[in-house]
Write a structure and sequence with these properties.
With 375 residues, the protein is α+β, with helices and mostly antiparallel strands. The two termini are 36 Å apart. The strands form 3 sheets. Strands 1, 2, 3, 4, 6 and 7 form a 6-stranded mixed β-sheet that branches. A 3-stranded antiparallel β-sheet has the order 5-8-9. Helix 3 packs across helix 4 and helix 8 runs antiparallel to helix 9.
Length: 375
Amino acid sequence: MENLNNIFSYNIKDISNIGPEILNKEYKEIFLLDNAEYFSEINLSEFCNKNSNIDPIIFNNMVAKNIDNYIILYLPKYISSFSSSQIIGTLSLGISDLGNKICIPYFGCINQSIITNALNKTKKLLRLSKMTSENTKYVNWYFENLKIEISKINIKSSLLSYKTNLENYINKAEIIKQNWNMYIDNYDKWHFIMMKYSGKLTNYIYNSILRKEVANYIKLFLNKKEFINSDLLIVIDILENNKFINDCISIDLIDSIRYDNSHPLKWITEYKDHMLKKYRIQKPIKPVKPYNNIYQNFFTNIKNIHHPLLKQGCDFYVIDIHIPLLKGYSLDFFSPKLKKWLRKYRTITSNGPCNVPCNVPCNVPCNVPCNVSSI
């Protein structure tokens, strides 16, 4: 990448909130994902609980990998949406949607090569919406004119609030685990009941327990005017005394005896449907899954570990990527997840700014900027 020194700038800022996202500003709070590849649960337990220092080189490598992932994942999308909307915009890493500086922790200065390597990987994920022989030239223009501002943030954190937060997190994790275990126990019971009643009708015929349940169900209808007691008593006798019931069952047979109160299969079918309907709505609601590793999950959220990192001398940063505008040109971006080219534009909704798919398919040449009025 040319003019590397002109791309980067450095400064120092305070921790104050910068306000929520707006049309030309997009924030991404970075999380330390896949930290299990770098640190064991024991490592992070000792770091969080016992004032044990974390290896700064391994930590920086982990952070660098996350910066790389975030730039590759998000920068193409926002270059595309800003260019399609013909606005100059900024993608900020290390800031929450509400404008709180959660920051990116790093021991020492963030190496420019971390960012430039990610930018070089990102180039191939962009193309002109109107493909020309000079596609590479225009895509390169965007990257040569990016302005990347790396701000060191002066943050503060108290030991008391850190310990309280960690204790609350552990307690919450324990409650989640207890709720999950309760759910598994209740689900197993529910599943057992559903399997009991969802079997074939022949299971009812040859299972004395189920026959008695059906007989007791029929007794609820004795002495009701719409039923003839003698018919019900005959069926009850057949069921309770394990008398023969023809097991040659067909759909036609079930249809023919659906309203025949003197036929055992009518009542067996009705009871089966009744019990399945009763228990189907009692299926336990699945709660949040418990954390496999409490400290690795706690460590994922940078806000949680400000204090121990500060104590060890870690620095904190926000990376602002200022995206220029080439008037009259819009860019598509490639989604590795969806495996296709996409085009979006920037707009404001009741929930704040967002990227909205353009109505022009990406296989159709286009160099007309997208905006709300043209959609």
